[in-house]
């Protein structure tokens, strides 16, 4: 006699469509929640990055503070030099002792901010430079009106640029001289650059004096203060090149 076949033991009742949709709805809801959380996280990260770029590490507070000046002057060089350089104020006060042989200070030929009470408007107005020992020996001779006498080439960074120079002649700061330089197409308000102060100026012979090409060029060519300007990214932030 064959055993009786019990179909209930071998066939489970399939889930109803209602159960299926409840399951699907729960899973979709969970996915939506996870996507929402992920979106908020990504937006937060993006905002943090934007804020970091915009502030660029600039400290809060007055531009007359030692903290602001240290930041403004030292960041004229790449961070790996800026972090350990000595920082000197316009009156000779050492704001921070350094350890790497580089020195940062304002290079504005006026010697003081246009608004002394509030300090430099921004690092560009301060015209900070970060140079090695040879560059400061060269510049000391320049300020004294003497012929630079250095044994090795000097190097100096000016990543905040300068407020403008006559490319032909040094210390042109009067309105008439500036107007003439502009009319002659020889006025250049530089953005970020590196400078080479040569021990032997003749090594610059044959180099271009054209500051519009983007290539390294000679400033004050034919004078005892000829030096090489090396544009880097951002050089034309303040003045468009003439093509």
Tell me the distance between the termini. 106 Å
Order of helices and strands: HHHHEEEHEHEEHEEEE
Q: Count structural domains.
A: 2
Structural class: alpha+beta
Give the C-alpha Rg: 32 Å
Strand content: 5-15%
Give the spatial strand order of the biggest sheet.
2-1-3-4-5-8-10-9
Structure explained in plain terms:
The protein has 243 residues and is an alpha+beta fold. It has 2 domains: 15-55; 66-231, no CATH class. It has helices at 7-10, 17-55, 66-74, 79-82, 123-126, 133-144, 175-183; strands at residues 86-88, 94-96, 103-106, 128-131, 154-158, 165-166, 187-188, 193-197, 217-219, 227-231. The strands form 2 sheets. It has an 8-stranded mixed beta sheet. A hairpin with a 5-residue loop joins strand 1 (86-88) and strand 2. The protein is globular, with a radius of gyration of 32 Å. Mean pLDDT is 86; it is low at 1-12 and 46-54.
Secondary-structure blueprint of this entry?
Blueprint: H1 7-10, H2 17-55, H3 66-74, H4 79-82, E1 86-88, E2 94-96, E3 103-106, H5 123-126, E4 128-131, H6 133-144, E5 154-158, E6 165-166, H7 175-183, E7 187-188, E8 193-197, E9 217-219, E10 227-231
Q: What is this structure, in a nutshell?
A:
This protein is α+β, with helices and mostly antiparallel strands and 243 residues long. It has helices at 7-10, 17-55, 66-74, 79-82, 123-126, 133-144, 175-183, and strands at residues 86-88, 94-96, 103-106, 128-131, 154-158, 165-166, 187-188, 193-197, 217-219, 227-231.
């Amino acid at each position: 006699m064959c055993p009786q076949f019990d179909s209930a033991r071998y066939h489970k009742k399939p889930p109803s469509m209602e159960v299926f949709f409840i399951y699907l709805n729960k899973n979709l809801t969970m996915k939506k929640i996870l996507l929402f959380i992920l979106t908020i996280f990504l937006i937060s990260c993006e905002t943090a990055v934007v804020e970091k770029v915009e502030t660029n590490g600039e400290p809060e507070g007055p531009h007359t503070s030692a903290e602001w000046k240290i930041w403004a002057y030292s960041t004229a060089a790449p961070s790996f030099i800026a972090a350990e350089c000595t920082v000197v104020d316009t009156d000779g006060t050492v704001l921070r002792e350094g350890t790497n042989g580089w020195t940062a200070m304002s290079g504005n030929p006026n010697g003081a901010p246009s608004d002394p009470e509030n300090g430099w408007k921004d690092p560009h107005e301060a015209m900070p430079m970060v140079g090695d020992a040879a560059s400061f020996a060269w510049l000391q001779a320049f300020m004294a009106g003497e012929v630079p006498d250095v044994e090795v080439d000097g190097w100096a960074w000016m990543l905040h640029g300068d407020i403008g120079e006559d490319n032909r002649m040094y210390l042109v700061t009067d309105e008439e001289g500036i107007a003439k330089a502009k009319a002659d197409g020889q006025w250049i308000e530089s953005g970020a650059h590196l400078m080479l102060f040569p021990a032997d100026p003749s090594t610059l012979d044959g180099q271009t004096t054209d500051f519009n090409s983007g290539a390294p060029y000679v400033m004050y060519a034919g004078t005892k203060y000829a030096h090489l300007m090396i544009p880097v990214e951002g050089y034309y932030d303040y003045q468009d090149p003439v093509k």
